[in-house]
Amino acid sequence: MQAYRIVLADDHVIFRQGMKRLIQEEPGLEVVGEANDGSELLERLNDLKPDLVILDISMPDTGGIEAAREIRKHHPHLKVLILTMHKKKEYLYHAISAGAQGYLVKEDSDIELFSAIETIRKGDVYVTHLLTGELAEDLSSIFKVDGKRSMESLTKREKEVLKLIAEGKLNKEIADLLFISVRTVENHRANILRKLKMKKTADLVRYAIGHGIIELTF
After folding, report:
1. Strand bridging mode 79-84 / 125-127
2. Secondary structure (3-state) at 54
3. Which domains does the chain carry?
4. CA torsion, points 110, 112, 115, 119, in degrees to nearest 10?
5. 167-170: long-range contacts (C-beta < 8 A, 24 or more apart)?
6. pTM of the model
7. For the segment 97-136, what is each residue's pLDDT rounded down to a tens digit?
8. By CB count within 10 A, which of 11, 24, 143, 213 is most buried?
9. Strand, coil or helix: 33
10. CA distance linking residue 53 with residue 64, whole number of Å
């Protein structure tokens, strides 16, 4: 069975090397490359051909969120796991809206890493358990504060588009999946934002998670 190919991107060399040793000890996983920042990572992806990229948010030059967006644009089948020190839920929403399939905090990476990798490998979204409490409070508030932002205001097609947006897919990808034009996707996106009284994709991710449109694994 072919090993699951992983690339690590983190500007802290000692941490990166420790993660590499940990992953290499797990049967079926192989670290095929490393990068010091997002720019170096993006330059090497065509040659390395990984299945999964594990990258930090805070890196010089090109950070993890920006790198995730570029990966989603140019390598749509490549999975992304954010591994960071940031525990604030806002970073999680931005990461998912950028196309990441997982969000892990460094302090618990040795405990949760392989669960995260396996979850992403199966096609699901993984979120560190350290954010469970904050997410529960945040998502419960959606139903209190956003009472008028009901799913009932969205058409069936708008719900489909919302799900795909929240999964980090680009307008062109959504258009291809739903057999509609990019212009139509843009119109649906604008209508969804207007109806839900939101401005950013990260807000749509938050809403989609809170209403069970996309599911997270902890």
Report:
1. unpaired
2. strand
3. 4-127 (3.40.50.2300), 134-213 (3.40.50.2300)
4. -130
5. 167/96, 167/214, 168/68, 168/72, 168/96, 168/97, 168/98, 168/99, 168/100, 169/72, 169/99, 170/72, 170/73, 170/76
6. 0.82
7. 899 999 999 988 888 999 999 999 999 899 998 887 777 7
8. 213
9. strand
10. 10
